[in-house]
Design brief:
Layout (H helix, E strand, L loop, with lengths): L10 H40 L3 H67 L9 H14 L6 E8 L2 H8 L1 H18 L5 E6 L2 E7 L7 H12 L2 E4 L2 E4 L2 E8 L6 H17 L5 E3 L3 H16 L8 E10 L4 E13 L3 E3 L1 H10 L3 H19 L7 E6 L1 H4 L4 H12 L6 E6 L7 H14 L2 E7 L5 H4 L7 E4 L12 H15 L3 E4 L5 H9 L4 E2 L10 H11 L4
Parallel strand pairs: 6-7, 9-11, 11-12, 12-13, 13-14, 14-15, 15-16
Antiparallel strand pairs: 1-3, 1-6, 2-3, 4-5, 8-9, 8-16, 9-10
Helix pairs in contact: 1-2, 4-5, 5-6, 7-8
């Protein structure tokens, strides 16, 4: 507990002390008067009886006077000393009260500063929070109703959720602090940087004088933080998605600017992230459509609106069917066919991809058993989302699912994109190695679209690469694409990997990939994705070898 002496005295207590002191003083004076009058009268009477001669009487009177003076001095000393003590005590009490009041004032100022910081500043980064940002922008709008211009840039860290799951929230917090620090060192007033919460920030640029320089300025800010960060001894390349709204064109108050910038950021995410998108009115419609689609997506499995189509993968050495790729299709009862590109990325952003992936696994496993394939090397390829692969619970859930449904993992090939593994290569290698031990074969899908495929190709425990259709579609001999393709094939074979060419649409393309020793191919030239019934007919037509 606090020392009570540090606090001011209770006024009622001081008043009681004063009354007690007055009563004690009055009592002493009364006793003194009684004693004095009694002494004078009684002592004279006694002296006259005892001393008869005048000389002795005068001496006795003198002694009596000296005694009375001494006694009176003692009485006055006691009264004066007591009064001085009370005065000193009062001064000390006042001093203590003053010190206590001063300390209380300092504490109240400190508490006021802390409350101000809590109200207007982010405790993690010490940046202004959304409350201070809102007040600042509203005040600027109030002061500049007709002549002001604000650039409201709402942005967040791409794949931050995956980073938190991989490295933990403390590492994520370190990244947020570092991003805030780097940007704070770059920007100058009147530009304001605020943290909205989580991995979300806002850059507010006030009094923009040249809109042509606005985007280059924003890009220069992102250039400072769009880089590799060493987080928990691992290297992560961090990118950002941003939405921009301008005052007064896109909103005349803080809430509208925030809503429109957020909508633009959502569009940036849907377009592949790592970009800046400026708001326009169409975005509101797009966001509403996506929200509606997501709500319908959550009912698709329950309502049995999903189905799997299968595209054959051809072994070029004998043109037999080596396997199929399972491709999800959504047939909405009202909207009709909805292509995967319209809902897969949406499901990834909202966490629904887990349910979709589990459904694909289950459906493919059930169908495989019905096919009763005799060819031991025949496999069903399933695409694995980055959001699923890097989830810490993925392997545990997968193993349990395999046990519950008695799944033969050797009958499945998992296709993983480069973007799903590049954020944390060490963890990716661990996960892929675990999948290999379970019996799955692994393929690196969309090979060649990333900038670091060749760097990590030797490290990954994969069995094959699937060359992206972008290298196939317009390829001709003696072109740059041709030599890149030839290099990819030779490199993969040197590393004992098989090669699958995607997107084969013409006979020329088929002849070319076969000529340069591609192992497998798939595309519309051979067959479009088909339903289960039609794929069975296709198998019979091809006379599959056992």
């Amino acid at each position: 507990m606090e020392d009570q002496g540090k606090y001011p005295k209770d006024p009622r207590h001081e008043q009681t002390q004063h009354l007690n002191a007055t009563a004690a003083t009055t009592k002493i004076i009364f006793i003194y008067l009684v004693f004095g009058f009694g002494w004078i009268l009684l002592s004279d009477y006694i002296i006259e009886i005892i001393f008869a001669d005048p000389a002795s009487l005068r001496l006795a009177q003198s002694v009596k006077g000296v005694f009375f003076v001494g006694f009176t001095a003692i009485i006055f000393y006691y009264i004066i000393h007591r009064s001085i003590d009370m005065y000193v005590e009062t001064i000390l009490n006042l001093k203590d009260a003053y010190v206590s009041l001063d300390q209380g004032h300092k504490k109240s100022l400190t508490l006021e500063e802390k409350l101000f910081d809590l109200a207007f500043y982010d405790p993690l980064t010490s940046l202004p929070n959304k409350t201070l940002l809102e007040e600042t922008i509203n005040q600027y709008i109030l002061n500049h109703p007709n002549d002001g211009l604000i650039g409201f840039v709402y942005f967040d860290i791409d794949e931050f959720r995956n980073l938190n799951e991989v490295k933990g929230h403390s590492v994520g917090d370190e990244l947020i602090k570092e991003v805030g620090r780097l940007l704070s060192e770059k920007i100058e007033k009147p530009t304001m940087l605020a943290r909205m919460g989580g991995d979300e920030f806002v850059l507010a640029l006030f009094d923009i004088t040249n809109l042509e320089l606005f985007l280059p300025t924003i890009e220069s800010y992102f250039g400072v933080i769009r880089k590799s960060f060493i987080l928990d001894q691992d290297d992560f390349f961090i990118t950002y998605s941003a939405g921009v709204a301008l005052y007064p064109d896109h909103g005349k108050d803080y809430i509208t600017l925030l809503r429109h910038a957020d909508a633009a950021m959502s569009i940036a995410k849907s377009k592949g992230k790592d970009q800046i998108v400026i708001f326009d009115e169409e975005m509101v419609t797009i966001i509403k459509q996506q929200t509606e689609l997501l709500n319908q997506l959550r009912l698709a499995i329950t309502n049995q609106e999903f189905s799997l189509h299968y595209q054959p993968i051809i072994q070029l050495s004998d043109e037999s069917v080596a396997g199929v790729e399972a491709l999800i299709r959504w047939m909405h009862p009202i909207k009709g066919f909805i292509p995967p590109l319209a809902f897969i990325s949406l499901s990834e952003r909202n966490g629904f991809i887990k349910e979709i992936t589990e459904w694909v696994f289950q459906e493919a496993a059930n169908v495989y058993k019905l096919w009763k394939q005799k060819k031991k090397s025949f496999k069903v390829s399933i695409n694995l989302s980055a959001a699923i692969l890097m989830n810490d619970k993925f392997i545990t859930s997968l193993i349990q699912w395999i046990k519950d449904h008695d799944i033969d993992c050797t009958k499945f090939n998992l296709e993983i994109t480069e973007t799903s593994i590049i954020s944390d290569i060490d963890k990716s290698i661990h996960i892929l190695s675990t999948l290999k031990r379970l019996g799955f074969t692994l393929a690196l899908d969309d090979f060649g679209t990333g900038y670091s495929s060749l760097t990590y190709l030797q490290k990954l425990p994969i069995d094959s690469i699937k060359i992206d259709r972008s290298f196939i579609s317009n390829i001709k001999e003696d072109t740059e694409e041709f030599y890149v393709l030839k290099y990819m094939i030779d490199l993969a074979h040197h590393l004992n990997l098989t090669v699958v060419a995607e997107g084969i649409e013409t006979k020329e393309q088929a002849d070319m990939v076969k000529k340069y020793q591609v192992d497998f191919a798939q595309g519309y030239y051979y067959c479009k994705p088909m339903t289960q019934d039609r794929i069975l007919e296709y198998f019979k037509a091809f006379h599959m070898k056992s």
